[in-house]
Amino acid sequence: MTLTLEHARKLDTWDPLANMRDKFALNTGEIYLDGNSLGAMPKAAVKRAAEVVENEWGKSLIQSWNKHQWFSLPQRIGDKIASLIGAGQGEVVCTDATGINLYKAVACGLKLNPSRKVVLLEGSNFPTNNYIVQGLVKQLGDDYEVRFAEDHEFDDNIDESVAVVCLTQVHYKSGRKLDMDAITRHAQSKGCIVIWDLCHSAGALPVNLNQANADLAVGCTYKYLNGGPGSPAFIFMAKRHHNKVEQPLSGWWGHQAPFDFKRDYQAGQGINQLLTGTQGILSLAVAEVGVDLMCQVDMQQLRAKSQKLTQLFIDLVEQECAGYGFSLVSPRDPELRGSQVAFAHEHGYPIVQALIAAGVVGDFRAPDILRFGFAPLYNSYEDVWHAVQRFKDIMQSQRWQQPEFNQRHAVT
Amino acid sequence: MTLTLEHARKLDTWDPLANMRDKFALNTGEIYLDGNSLGAMPKAAVKRAAEVVENEWGKSLIQSWNKHQWFSLPQRIGDKIASLIGAGQGEVVCTDATGINLYKAVACGLKLNPSRKVVLLEGSNFPTNNYIVQGLVKQLGDDYEVRFAEDHEFDDNIDESVAVVCLTQVHYKSGRKLDMDAITRHAQSKGCIVIWDLCHSAGALPVNLNQANADLAVGCTYKYLNGGPGSPAFIFMAKRHHNKVEQPLSGWWGHQAPFDFKRDYQAGQGINQLLTGTQGILSLAVAEVGVDLMCQVDMQQLRAKSQKLTQLFIDLVEQECAGYGFSLVSPRDPELRGSQVAFAHEHGYPIVQALIAAGVVGDFRAPDILRFGFAPLYNSYEDVWHAVQRFKDIMQSQRWQQPEFNQRHAVT
């Protein structure tokens, strides 16, 4: 069956999430397929930012810490995120950057498993996790070790020597989704602590950390949760580990009684201990707008649409752009994919630049990956159709060969 | 000589910084003396926040990382802060929270002095520094040690056993200012690495880190730099230490080539290595507005006004509120003070609450400190006069004894 524009439009008509699109600012004529890097702006973010700046900071000033509950934002937003990732209330705080939270999480994981010294990571996944764990391991001394294994090597490498298994569920390049339940079960059967990085999962698909019995988790809010550029990350610690272990970045926000200004550190109760210093309130408050929108959505409906969007994209690229040398990098089975699709092409870089110039915003990942994220809250099936039409036009016209698309600059 | 309102007004007439006041949003009738906790809002922050949200995030989306130079904000703002604290270009980045930067700084300090294991802190100063160093020391193991010493004990305690001396220049409670040059010289003569916390110094008084030969420094932007609630902090590392030591929170923003997505960490050059993860761009961009305002100011003029404001306040309180049991906690010599004044009173808490209700916003610090910050950019001498008149009225009328002022809640 040949896929048509009419088919795409019909899917939009049936889409139970179609009403969410209007809640986002989208550029006319642009098809934004990079929400897996930076989510689109919820329209309500404009008002919220103005309110925090003009009213809360500008007028209430220091009193806003209580009056506008700035102090409890990490917990309040954390509880909302918890509801999206199968965590309990009081198990998540929204704070700091993902890498900093990962440092806390892995340090706690190692303390929870003190007889072992190995941290296992998937080396090919987003490398900041490698960098952070390499920094931690170097600091802890020669006994400690980073072990890299790719997904097909997990069975052999997750063994009784591993203290902490730290994995990103959805691969940042390929979009491959790991089986959180099975891997957690396997690793825990070997006595490992399991940490999940949900950067490409939270708001992209249903996650159930407690069903999987995850020990710790981290993730960001600026991709599928649409929290704004560099908006604060989150950290989850299962309740069973609370008050048993202290994270090393022990700042005053994690103190039992921050306003007693006691000389010595005394860890706060529960998830509070995972906090460190004063948070960037503006970024934090605006992040809540995106999280709130996601909380209105049924995660099963979100997943269904995500899978249909990515499938339609794959099918259309293969129908319309056949013969141009693209090979699918993402899993063909939608059950094994996150909410993004990657194709490989030797001229990936200029093709992505030409696509952006044509109003189809995806991104390039070295050495040869064209990466497209699909945000079920604001991407439509018709978007997918038009994106692929422009894609085909660029390939047919060979426009990607123009010199301006071949100049390299920093990409995100 | 009795001090009068006319005298205060005359000082305002002569004030070379008087034109800066109009650049800040100030509540009519309110006298804000808490800029040492959260600086007032520059009016331009409203427009900047809207621009970042609506235009940069909302319209340019992911392309803003290059187009609007989001990636280089930490360095760009860092260079501006550098000019305010006597640091060179490329020696400061604006990033993360103060406590997190302190963790990086002390970890680097210990690596620069590997044969020693003691970190010296002033235990009575703002305790998050104690907490952070306690967390770091605990993580590094039993060999390491935190030593607390008060300022009169520095001579005896800063010795050849100390690896790192980590001091906050202006005491958060008393406003006492340490002699940065002399202490740095003394500590370095004993072979110590010296780290300065400039939270109550940056934008409050002239600082010259390189003249003092400081090794590292941290500080916040949300007090006298008026960067907004919880706006990102900064970290300084003297050029002579660059590329010699790696901080442990080694995230991708500190990598030599972040967009090569290499598996292994390779430290970035110079100050870049002090970065960790993706920054909250909204908070960071708005912080620049406050920093830019401070960069318009002559630091000697700022210091002169700060000293006159604090002196006028002390003199007026002692003239108008004599006999009510206040004792000056801050140094009487303006050369030894930062830009704040602290008085002790056994009923400090309700008096501060009554003052706030009367539109004089200062804060209380346990057990008995009334703390007032003076921001030369927006506080006037007439402010000081009226603040003390309201203060006197509260004491004369005994209004502070009203029950509503005696209910404790979290204070900042």
Automatic annotation (TrEMBL), chains A, B:
InterPro entries in the cross-refs: Kynureninase, PyrdxlP-dep_Trfase, PyrdxlP-dep_Trfase_major, PyrdxlP-dep_Trfase_small
Keyword Hydrolase (UniProt): yes
Cofactors required: pyridoxal 5'-phosphate
HAMAP family the UniProt entry points to: Kynureninase
Reactions that this protein is recorded to catalyse: 3-hydroxy-L-kynurenine + H2O = 3-hydroxyanthranilate + L-alanine + H(+); L-kynurenine + H2O = anthranilate + L-alanine + H(+)
Record protein name field: Kynureninase
Molecular function terms from GO: kynureninase activity; pyridoxal phosphate binding
SUPFAM superfamilies named in the record: PLP-dependent transferases
Top-level taxon of the source organism: Bacteria
Pathway(s) the chain acts in: Amino-acid degradation; L-kynurenine degradation; L-alanine and anthranilate from L-kynurenine: step 1/1; Cofactor biosynthesis; NAD(+) biosynthesis; quinolinate from L-kynurenine: step 2/3
Gene3D superfamilies, sorted: Aspartate Aminotransferase, domain 1 (3.90.1150.10), Type I PLP-dependent aspartate aminotransferase-like (Major domain) (3.40.640.10)
Oligomer and partners: Homodimer.
Any single GO CC term annotated in Swiss-Prot or TrEMBL for this entry: cytoplasm
Binding-site residues for pyridoxal 5'-phosphate, renumbered to this chain: T98, T168, D197, H200, Y222, W252, T278
Function: Catalyzes the cleavage of L-kynurenine (L-Kyn) and L-3-hydroxykynurenine (L-3OHKyn) into anthranilic acid (AA) and 3-hydroxyanthranilic acid (3-OHAA), respectively.
PANTHER family: KYNURENINASE
